[in-house]
Amino acid sequence: MAQSCTYVVFGATGNLSMTKLMPAFYHLEKHRRLADDVKILAIGRRDWNREEWLETVKDAVIPKARGGITDDVCERFCQRLDYFKMDILAADEYENLKQHISANHWPTNMAFYLSLGPDQFAPAVEYLGKAGLLKQDSGWRRVVLEKPFGYDAESAKQLQKRLNKHLDEEQTYRIDHYLGKGMVQNLMVFRFANLMMEPLWNRNYIDHIQITHAEDKSVGTRAGYYDTSGAMRDMIQSHLLQLLALVAMEPPASMEAEALRNEKVKLLQSVRPIMKKNVHNQAYRAQYAEGVVNGQTVPAYLQEPDVAEDSVTETYAALKLYIDNWRWAGVPFYIQTGKNMPKNRTIVAIRFKHPPKQFFRESQVKKMEPNWVVFGIQPEESIRIEITAKQPGLEIMTEQTSLDATLKGDDNNTYDAYEELLLDVIKGDRSLFLRYDEVKAAWNVVDPVLQAWAAETAYIDTYPAGTWGPDGAKKLFDHPEQCWRYHY
Ligand code: BG6
């Protein structure tokens, strides 16, 4: 059972909190994963009182709970909730916050979850620090920072400098919710709890590795943020480079936070820097045009509310990377992400080389396919190993078949990434959170591409919404046998 804690959620009425954080707390309550004295204090600018907040949660969060709702869980959950109105950019209001917490005699262990815009992280931490809320004399104090951590390597450095004045690294929880996903953790378990693949997991046997994140959703109401960010910053710099690190890193010394993070940093630092002259061979971007997604006609990105009329912000980005170390020299890693694609699908696919000699006659081979190992990250959670086998019958005729493991649990052991991560903050387990040098190394990977794209404001390729992205991205592949894989 987790420890007692006052969880203070800044930006509690915002999109992330209402769609992810509050539901995650509710599910933790449902499965009795929270200690009795965990309090959840929502901070917002709206002039609400506790009752109005409870009504909002009851109307907008609880009805969508996984596996239905029960009155007693709802009641227990609501007892933990409170609301405090404040302007997070007003330094003097933090004193009132402090008094509110102590007047209610809530736990002195405190986690501050900053579900805020990136430019609000530094002031919020400064004001928390000045109000004495980050001092750990009467209990631990931890700060959870949402992504994006900075806008590029330089702004991340400046942000870190400001945080350093008030916050120790061991109090800092830079969240990347992909690390809380069950299948992302399964990548590590598959690699390091099985011996079978390890001898093959290198440049001698692997042709290339692909990471695809496709979403069937548009930017929705988030264009205010997204139009200044784009797919490379929003998905690749954070979530997808984390997937890359986990699939390609060396075995860590242990599964402890520092050992794990050391290996991820080492891997990200080994990515070959993309030179300016290579940006167009190694990166591709595009924007969705009008199209049909799930049977509905959807507008072009440029027609979405809050998008600048001449925006060249990419809603699709693809990248080819090389990792210059002994294990991976010469193996391309292809990464892509896009909004308004036909389906939600995140997969990590490892394509092996062909055997050195082809023994079977052409007439005996239906299709010459290499082996694949494919991790379905979401929505399907699966591991598939594709092999060639002999078809039943007298004659030798080969066919492709697969060994499949479906790993999704039932309601009792299915959880959302945020549930695990919210609990880890209370437990003080930072292994699934990012260290600053990791974030910095990830920015260094994408910065050259972002700089080149920022200078090209006249044109961006488009793809019709509801398709698997622009044809132009295919040019990243090294040879004609390589292509994006979208199925598990
Ligand atoms: C968020 C991005 O971090 O991750 C969103 O800001 C994206 O744009 C989301 O849609 C994807 O997360 P998931 O868990 O739905 O794959």
Automatic annotation (TrEMBL):
It holds the Pfam family G6PD_N. GO terms for molecular function: glucose-6-phosphate dehydrogenase activity; NADP binding. One of its GO terms (cellular component) is cytosol. Keywords: Carbohydrate metabolism, Glucose metabolism, NADP, Oxidoreductase. Signal peptide: none annotated. InterPro entries: G6P_DH (IPR001282), G6P_DH_C (IPR022675), G6P_DH_NAD-bd (IPR022674), NAD(P)-bd_dom_sf (IPR036291). Substrate binds at H177, K181, E215, D234, K339. Residues 188-485 form the Glucose-6-phosphate dehydrogenase C-terminal domain. Its EC number is 1.1.1.49. It catalyses: D-glucose 6-phosphate + NADP(+) = 6-phospho-D-glucono-1,5-lactone + NADPH + H(+). The active site is at H239 (proton acceptor). NADP(+) binds at R45, D87, I88, K147. Residues 8-186 form the Glucose-6-phosphate dehydrogenase NAD-binding domain. Pathway: Carbohydrate degradation; pentose phosphate pathway; D-ribulose 5-phosphate from D-glucose 6-phosphate (oxidative stage): step 1/3. The keyword Oxidoreductase applies. The keyword Oxidoreductase applies. One of its GO terms (biological process) is pentose-phosphate shunt, oxidative branch. Belongs to the glucose-6-phosphate dehydrogenase family. NCBIfam families: PRK12853.1-3, zwf. Catalyzes the oxidation of glucose 6-phosphate to 6-phosphogluconolactone. This is Glucose-6-phosphate 1-dehydrogenase. It comes from Thiosulfatimonas sediminis.
